[in-house]
Design a protein that fits this description.
Layout: H1 16-22, H2 26-29, H3 42-51, E1 59-64, E2 70-74, H4 75-91, E3 99-103, H5 108-119, E4 123-127, H6 133-143, E5 147-150, H7 152-162, E6 170-173, E7 184-186, H8 187-193, E8 208-214, E9 222-227, H9 231-240, E10 249-252, H10 259-271, E11 275-279, H11 285-294, E12 299-302, H12 304-312, H13 315-319, E13 328-332, H14 338-348, E14 352-356, E15 366-367, E16 381-382, E17 388-391, E18 404-408, E19 418-419, H15 423-428, E20 436-444, E21 450-455, E22 460-462, E23 465-467, H16 469-476, E24 482-492, E25 496-505, H17 513-526, E26 535-538, H18 552-560
Parallel strand pairs: 1-11, 3-4, 3-5, 5-6, 6-7, 10-11, 10-12, 12-13, 13-14, 25-26
Antiparallel strand pairs: 1-2, 8-9, 9-19, 14-15, 15-16, 17-18, 18-20, 20-21, 22-23, 24-25
Helix pairs in contact: 3-4, 3-5, 3-10, 4-5, 4-8, 6-7, 9-10
The chain binds 5'-O-[(S)-ethoxy(hydroxy)phosphoryl]adenosine.
Amino acid sequence: MEETIPPMESGNLHDYEVACKEFAWASVDKEFDWSKGSIYNVAYEAIDRHAKNWRRNKIALYSVRADGVVDKHTFGEMSELTSRFASGLLKLGAKKGDRIFVYLDRTPELYISMIGVTKMGGIVGPLFSALGHDAVKDRALDAGANIIITSPYLYERIIPVLDDLIDLKKIVIVGDTEGMCDRCVKFEDVLASGDPEYQAENMAPTDPYIIHYTSGSTGKPKGVLLGHRAMPQQLITSKWVLDLREDDTYWCTADPGWVTGTSYGIFGPWYLGTSIVSYEGRFDARTWYSLLERFKITVWYTAPTALRMLMRAGDELVKEFNFSKLRHVCSVGEPLNAEVIRWAMRTMNKRIHDTWWQTETGAHIICNYPAMTIRPGSMGRPIPGVIAGVVDEEGNEAPPGTEGYLAIRPGWPSMMLGVWRNTPKFREYFEVPGWYISGDLAYRDEDGYFWFLGRADDVIKTSGERLGPFEVESALIEHYAVAEAGVIGKPDELRGEIVKAFITLRPGNEPSEDLKEDITKFVKTRLAYYAYPREIDFVDSLPKTRSGKIMRRVLKAKELGQPVGDLSTLDD
Ligand code: WTA
């Protein structure tokens, strides 16, 4: 018999089948103050309205520093701080619709900035603090960033590219500004200049509140715009999928540089008035377990690579901790192996609920719910109110068990509004009539469960981070010794995939371990700490089409020892 994990007795979504038949999006509207005539703004719904009711003194944020010290902020405090910051930004010259980037570690200022920017009607651009100066430049230049909010050490990192950022007017520094450029102002001073009573800007549903840069197989990362209209979907999925309730303490391990860290690390849970925990430090098995125990985390949202790392740390370590408060666990970002699900059942007696969605979808699409049977290895079923399918190139739905493109009927509330200054790219998602094409391959079983098969393109997922090969290749060829580079995702047991680069050298350079190390360091500092090739092969030539495009699929097939397929367009 097929392996399944039985449903739990309770869950905010009691009956999936009934909800699929009866649910209407309009029913979620009444959960928001704007349905009663109040301001329409994500920041208002996430923070301000709670500050006006009994949640005023409830903790909104437990921000745990890397050294373990905790800063706590109530909804009331967050409301005042973010109002100050929003009006302080306006005084600095910021305007509604400006792109304001937040390049910070996971500290309270990051959360104050995210909410503050959206409160004044800005489009916030979160940047993971592991990004290097070239990655920041690509994004800030593309978006025409007007302000960057950062910290002294990250400011130091981007000095080499500051002069290139022509639209940049101010840099807000969390810390001391001594010796910095005259565009720099202190975060503290912005707060001090602001009005704690400032009211959030009234926005339209189709106004963007955030720009997330994300990768495809071609070109540099694109700015995906999500709108204030995403609210209902982010709220209802925080209820149904994350199963959040009033008394929960919730920890989302994703960084707000990525969509999981904003849709479900900030906005969704805060629409519900949930207390969230944020940890500044990096992954460490013992630290993570101790955070779950110390903060009595009840709901935990994390990723397969982290779970696999915990699994590797051994069953003995798990036994040292008490997870009696942990009620619900979800995972996202890459395929969740059945083995990990079995491990969590065995060691913690917890079901792990896989969830599938993308930056472009803005919120959950295909998920597992507490009150639904889990089929380990399956991503689950579409959320009520959304229709997903597996289709061929003409948009015909594939029969059960047949591979095809994972697609969604356009028009779900949190669907991206567009791609910043790149309408052709946006249109590409909708080329198959009647569908949004996700770029993933999947099949659906007889009972409507979706199973992930892989990407239809060259996008790499390493430790859950989405990475475009072009981005890495562009960084590689900036290195003095590199002539050409082809980059692929190579399957990896722990990280899902690792970045592998095939490199031809410029005349006068010889392959060596030292050179590999130098290239690695180069990519880490310019692009991102996680984006460097963990494997480098120096080769004499790369397979190319007659028009000179590197054929990554040939590199990948060769690497995996698979047939290389149709080579009719190959150059030699
Ligand atoms: C992959 C993250 C398998 C997929 C929220 C998708 C998954 C891409 C899953 C989006 C899952 C996400 N199982 N693969 N449960 N969830 N993916 O934009 O390839 O960083 O298209 O959004 O991650 O990545 P993104």
